[in-house]
Amino acid sequence: MSSGRGPASPSGGPVIRSGHLKKLKTMKKKYFVLRGEGPGCLACLEYYDSKKKFENRQPPKRSILLHSCFNINKRGDTKHKHVIALYTKDECFCLILDSEKELDEWLKAMLRLQSGDVPDGEQPRPTFEHVWQVTMQKRGLGARKNIHGPYRLCLTDQTLSLVKIGAQDNSDSIEISLNYIRRCGFANDIFYIEVGRSAVTGDGEFWMAVEDNNIALNMYDVITTAMRNSKSNKDEVGPRQRTRSSSANEASKPISVLQRRHTGQKLHGFSPLGTTGRDRCDSLPSRARTTSEGQPTTVVLSHPRGAHIMSHVPRPHSMCGRGLSYSPPIASMPISPSSDTDTSPVSRRYPLNTCAATFALVRTLYPPIR
What we know:
InterPro entries: IRS (IPR039011), IRS_PTB (IPR002404), PH-like_dom_sf (IPR011993), PH_domain (IPR001849). Bindings to phosphatidylinositol 3-kinase and SHP2. It holds the Pfam family IRS. Residues 14-115 form the PH domain. One of its GO terms (biological process) is insulin receptor signaling pathway. The chain is an alpha+beta fold. Among the domains are: 15-115, Pleckstrin-homology domain (PH domain)/Phosphotyrosine-binding domain (PTB) (PH-domain like), CATH 2.30.29.30; 130-233, PH-domain like. The protein is 18% helix and 25% strand. The protein is built from 7 helices and 17 strands. Strands 1, 2, 3, 4, 5, 6, 7 and 8 form an 8-stranded antiparallel β-sheet that branches. It has a 7-stranded antiparallel β-sheet with strand order 12-11-10-9-15-14-13, with helices on both faces. Strands 16-17 form a two-stranded antiparallel sheet.
């Protein structure tokens, strides 16, 4: 239960909201007070052991300055439905509310106090829609780029960022467009992201450990949904997805490495575009066949010694439009049997074709006998 705006407190600014809420870490109820800015004090969230201690003006158990928070957002990776997360410099402080309506009221009030003035008609929004605390592994890009240890994986509608926990500035942060992510997946508490060569880190994969399988599942669902939405946006920036070459086989795919590492564990889907997604192709691109590369055809020529029937075999170069080829005959060229032994130099020197040039050549060398 929470109350509305109250009078200014001697120990801080005006009370915006207050009520009994649970801390996610201990699951114990505390009395929380959300204060606005006042003379000489900043907006903050406080909590007390009881409402009585607050009314008796005792000091709070803890006070969190909203302006110092890295991010404030709704958290959806726990078994509780209505959770607000306040990410400070070094930790994540979470509150459990009783309903979605109460969550929206508290969250909007906190974001409005954190961001300051919000234009009329606009709702305050967090800097990142989703934040997950992960432990980067010394594998793949993590090893090559020295990205390991505790990080925050932060998602917006267009980017995915890695921010080192406890860093004094953003020099260690990495931002990657969702368009440059090839795939992602997870097995138990290990999450995996593969990025393309257009990413700031170059192509490779990130491996990270999370608290449990529920968090990994939530990360997969949320990130793949954001990837689909980003790709369907007409105003998206960056190049289109690149079709990957056929030079890599199945064993070279990082997702296979994940499968081998967790033998016997179910590997959950890793593509926002279906079961195959942006997988490598299994064969080289095909092209349309030319007339000279069609199916074998039978050519019948008039000759005084009888009809010589030859099965047309495709050659690398056609006689039509490119001049005649005077290469040696192909010994393995199959010739269908005829009624007479064929000793014609034409059949030995020139690959017969259905082209008009072939017939013209034969008629020139062997005019009809009259």
